[in-house]
Design a protein that fits this description.
With 536 residues, the protein is mainly beta. It is built from one helix and 33 strands. The protein has a seven-stranded mixed β-sheet, with no helix packed on it. A four-stranded antiparallel β-sheet has the order 3-32-31-30, with no helix packed on it. Strands 10-11-12-13 form a four-stranded antiparallel β-sheet, with no helix packed on it. Strand 16 and strand 17 form a beta hairpin.
């Protein structure tokens, strides 16, 4: 693992080797949210206040974004590059994990960390504490991933996953351990509460029946104790966690989808929807299709709410956010023409060529009341043409209940409002499967009652893929993802205003404020030099 520390005008190198595990020298937020607390006020006239590339000479993927209490920005991604901004990453093999800490105005790289195994490693989620500690859930292909103070020192080949924590100085590991279940890549399945306890979600794969059972574990802040662990063993049924929120008191919310052919989700008596969507539509003697689900566990880890959400089609939740009153906000895919929408829906119907067809690559956004008894709003969220492809990725909400959804689209008819980029900026991107326009990221904010407040494209002429969103208390939206464009709208003075390869990470900050984020003055005497150190 490499830590490169950048302090003032000096670049100082700190190298740590963990018992032969692959660690490489290199230095390189509110929390991904302790209570999904990604805070934001509905935007009246938003603008792109800062945007930057971040990448090396090879392919780099932006996966997660976070903030600390000082407003520093954290990006996590998967990288094939051997260096970023001139600093060597010493790749271990395949894709390695990279975490970058940027100044609040995205003009300066403060820290850079690289860690990886001899095979492919992929970010499954990131949480940043107010102090700047970084927690990562990782999917890995290799038992060589570096561990330290591990509760599980060896990898289960059927269930690859790693949980690790980097200290606030970003110069050392607090712990790194294999999990005993699979951590899916590119999701939002790790969270930290105000006590520092870490919760991570995934699934246990059973090769005998090829079933994937939802798994959830909570660890102490130092990673040395497992506080609770649960596995939902439903025989041949699959449940996939896609999003996770933990509130300050330790209440846990999980959203995802179930592939339960036999309707195996153990819903509670207070469920909003007790049957899968196909059985609601066609009768209890029918098999189920994919349905979104939402689950809430009390601080002791016991389920007190679980429900389906879906229609007679393929529906999947991909992320969840929770406001201070406990209302639950979801985004995901809606493949069913009868996905449950409300009377106040922004888009009450999906795109479908024929009544018997499923919806065509449509998103949804929904808000469930704190007690789980009703939908406050539920709407399709889709472009206005059947040739467009719309992909949901993440959702965030503020204390007032304004919810922001990010994803990406290849449509020229995405619904826009108060947009800083009102049209798709895309060239043709044909591939082996279909002819299409290139993707642009999209970012959309709903008011607390589900009306459109703001919606915009973001991108250059080639593909952009959003992956995560974070909201700050000053009304800013931070999103990250991957860009393949050379004309992505990076701003002057950003840490990397130009592309370095065919695929770079990107960071964008959208705000209604006229002022830039405050960059704290250096603290006198804060410059430190780290000499090479060997831990035995």
């Amino acid at each position: 693992m490499k830590f490169i520390r950048l302090v003032g005008p000096l670049m100082l190198l700190f190298v740590t080797l963990f018992g032969g595990a692959g660690i490489a020298p290199i230095s390189h937020a509110a929390i991904r949210d302790i209570m999904s607390n990604k805070q934001h006020t509905a935007a009246a006239s938003p603008h792109l206040s800062s945007a930057t590339y971040l990448g090396g000479g090879e392919t780099d993927y932006g996966r997660a974004v976070g903030l600390d209490a000082q407003g520093n920005i954290y990006l996590a991604g998967d990288s094939f590059s051997s260096s970023i901004l001139g600093y060597s990453l010493d790749p271990q093999g395949g894709t390695d994990i990279v975490v970058a800490k940027l100044s609040p105005d995205a003009s300066t790289l403060l820290e850079l960390v690289s860690i990886g195994s001899t095979s492919g490693d992929h970010v499954g989620g990131m949480a940043v504490t107010p102090q700047g500690e970084v927690v990562l859930a990782i999917n890995t292909d290799s038992a060589s991933f570096p561990t330290y103070k591990a509760l599980h020192a060896t990898m289960d080949e059927d269930n690859p996953g790693v949980l690790l924590k980097i200290n606030a100085a970003m110069d050392d590991l607090v712990f790194s351990t294999f999990t005993d279940f699979t951590v899916p890549p590119e999701l939002h399945t790790v969270a930290v509460d105000t006590s520092g306890a870490i919760t991570v979600a995934g699934y246990v794969y059973n090769p005998s029946n090829r079933a994937r059972d939802l798994a959830l574990e909570r660890f102490s802040a130092d990673g040395q104790q497992q506080l609770f662990g649960k596995v939902w063993d439903n025989d041949d049924e699959d449940e996939r966690a896609q999003g996770l929120v933990v509130t300050p008191d330790g209440t846990t919310y999980v959203a995802g989808y179930t592939e339960g052919r036999w309707g195996g989700l153990a819903v509670t008596d207070n469920a909003l929807q007790k049957l899968c969507g196909r059985r609601l539509a066609l009768g209890a003697d029918h098999d189920c299709d994919n349905d979104a689900f939402v689950m809430r566990l009390n601080p002791e880890g016991e389920v007190d709410y679980a429900t389906y959400l879906g229609g007679n089609g393929d529906d999947k939740a991909v992320d969840i956010a929770v406001d201070g009153q406990g209302a639950m906000y979801l985004t995901g895919w809606a493949g069913a023409q009868d996905f449950p929408t409300t009377a106040n829906a922004f888009q009450p119907r999906c795109r479908a060529a024929k009544p018997e067809d499923g919806c065509y690559y449509d998103m949804f956004a929904a808000k469930i009341a704190p007690d789980g008894s009703k939908l406050i709003y539920s709407t399709y969220l889709a472009s206005g043409d059947l040739s467009g492809l719309d992909y949901p990725k993440a959702i965030a909400v503020d204390a007032a209940g304004n919810a922001t959804v990010v994803g990406y689209t290849a449509s020229e008819r995405w619904p826009v409002k108060n947009a800083f980029q009102s049209a798709l900026n895309a060239a043709p991107c044909p591939n082996a499967f279909q002819d299409r326009l290139c993707f642009d990221s999209v970012v959309t904010t709903f008011t607390p009652d589900g009306q459109l407040a703001f919606s915009s494209y973001l991108g250059g002429k080639f593909d952009e893929y959003s992956s995560d969103v974070m909201l700050s208390a000053d009304g800013s939206i931070y999103l990250t993802g991957t860009t393949e464009s050379t004309d992505f709208p990076a701003t002057a003075g950003s840490v990397q205003p130009g592309a370095r390869s065919g695929s770079d990470m990107f960071l964008a900050r959208i705000t209604t404020a006229d002022t830039s984020p405050t960059v704290p003055d250096p603290v006198p005497g804060s410059q430190r030099i780290y000499l090479p150190l060997m831990r035995r």
